[in-house]
Amino acid sequence: MCGIVGYVGAKFVDSVLMVGLERLEYRGYDSAGVATISNGELGFRKKAGKLKILDDNLKQSPLGGNIGIAHTRWATHGVPTEQNAHPHFDCKRVIAVAHNGIIENYTKLKEVLVNKGHVFISETDSEVIPHLIEENFNGDLKEAVLKSIAELDGSFALVILSEHQPDTIIAVRKKSPLVIGVGKDENLVASDESPILTHTNKMIYLEDGELALIKKDKVEVFDFTGKKIEKTVQEVDTKNEEFDKGKFDHFMQKEIFEQPEVIERILAERIGEDGLVHFKERKIKREFLAKVGKIIIQACGTSWHAALIGKFILEKYARIPTEVEISSEFRYRNPILVGDTLVMAISQSGETADTLAGIREAKAKFTKVWSFINVENSTIAKESDCAINMLAGPEIGVASTKAYTAQLMNLFLFTLYVARLKYSMSNEQVSAFALELKAIPNKIREILKQSEKIKIFAKEYAASPLMIFLGRGLNYPSALEGALKLKEISYMHAIGYPAGEFKHGPIALVDEKVGVVCVMPEGELFEKMISNVHEVKARKGKIIAIATEGDRRAAEVADSILYIPSCSEVLTPLLTVIPMQLFAYYIAIEKGCDVDRPRNLAKSVTVE
Ligand code: M6R
């Protein structure tokens, strides 16, 4: 969490940094700040609250200059105030530091620095960094930074700007991402590629343990002992437009509507002319996958919901016993990982700290790790034995939508791939399944056409004190995902529950004011869902059914109904989630919430 950006070149630095921060705002948005050097002097501006407040202020009175650093914050230590906003400074205000990560030993360091006379003005862990650099400065800024970072425990991506060396930004990476953009007579540095792409598509990816000196016409990289390292400049083909909302009001809305094309892209990449599934870039041997005796999928949030569905299909079709773990639990319980176990990690951002820690735990136990990520050069991609890009394209909205359906689709394809290796499915069965998958994008398009109807339902339910989401089997995780979407962007109290378990306690919550979304497509568990709906109706709960097109029985029991086109029961999670995403989106709009920047959240959760 937190986004950092730096620029040195001929352009007007306030504007480059603010446009950069806008692109990074999804990483945190409770306060922001900028520091630049103009006429050899360090100036800064910080504001609590959304980026717009800082932007308006800088527009009225810019800092100026051609070199600067900036930061958008997701608070870890200290409430979101102007004082706690980054950049932070040394006592003389000649060294500015923007930090993403956590300094675990800051209390001890602060105590020592305070005893030496340093004056702190914030409650943050980050402020120890400029004071340490000040303490260690002996005429050479790079040396002072190297000496200081040797004293820091924890994770940090840093950009440092100082009057001591006014033509240079120093960037440092340890366990938090940092990318350098190489332009013509200008260079940039940022937490990810998005703020850089407006200027250049040439990138240098810093690795853990690297420090860079960035000037307008030169980038030099060193390790933490000060030894120079030669780095390759890579050209990326991500398009700048992918970071624009286009005709949509919000990124979340755009991303919901992009889902048919995302799924078409994944299928085109993975299903060959032979009708079978291929993972050409796979780095784990086929022989190993054919022998895998157990899979443990670890993930967080929405990615964990996708994993729960992954368990169903891997066990049903590939006949591999599969466990699903929340990463923050998995990593601390000393999991038993025997020789033929494969650990799978699922992460949109590829940076989630808990999922990454789960991968490190698995690797420390010599277990192979297969990951699905959506950010090619992310840390999870680098640390896994095999990382597969889920190909959803950049997801900016904090609420995950297209990445979820992309995760599901990738899990279906992975299942078919392994099922064939294990001979639990024949080539003909795999090809027939793949054909059904190819019909999904148009079915999603049909559901998206109901968006106006969903908007009306959203108005009706926006004032409910509680929304409950019920589902069974494969659609129990869909219910969890429907509830998570609603609570994270509309702040409405919502719970997801397995419908059969509901009567064992939570049904006590139901009264005439409560809305209950019942995910009940046609299939084996439909009759059971009908019984659960009656139980809720008997307690006066209002039912919104998500059912299969033309289902009369669902229509009879429901107060409101949303349809999905008919498809095999196993594929229904790819469809049932779409109306719930739209429902959450329109409720949030109805309540006047900031859909793409929900309170207290950040897109990339890089702290534990
Ligand atoms: O980037 P990841 O997939 O690892 O992120 C995991 C969760 O933080 C994420 O899914 C989160 O729950 C979203 N806000 C859900 O919409």
Your description of this structure?
The chain has 3 domains: 3-242, 4-Layer Sandwich (Glutamine Phosphoribosylpyrophosphate, subunit 1, domain 1), CATH 3.60.20.10; 245-438, Glucose-6-phosphate isomerase like protein, domain 1 (Rossmann fold); 448-600, 3-Layer(aba) Sandwich (Rossmann fold), CATH 3.40.50.10490. It is globular, with a radius of gyration of 25 Å. A hairpin with a 2-residue loop joins β12 and β13 (218-223). 55% of the residues are buried. The mean pLDDT is 95. By secondary structure, the protein is an alpha/beta fold. The chain is built from 20 helices and 25 strands. The chain has an 8-stranded antiparallel beta sheet, covered by helices on one side. α15 (440-448) packs parallel to α20 (573-590) and α16 (451-461) packs across α20 (573-590). The chain binds 5-amino-5-deoxy-1-O-phosphono-D-mannitol (M6R). Residues 300-303, 347-349, 352, 355, 398-400, 484, 488, 605 line the site of 5-amino-5-deoxy-1-O-phosphono-D-mannitol. 5-amino-5-deoxy-1-O-phosphono-D-mannitol binds at residues 300-303, 347-349, 352, 355, 398-400, 484, 488, 605.
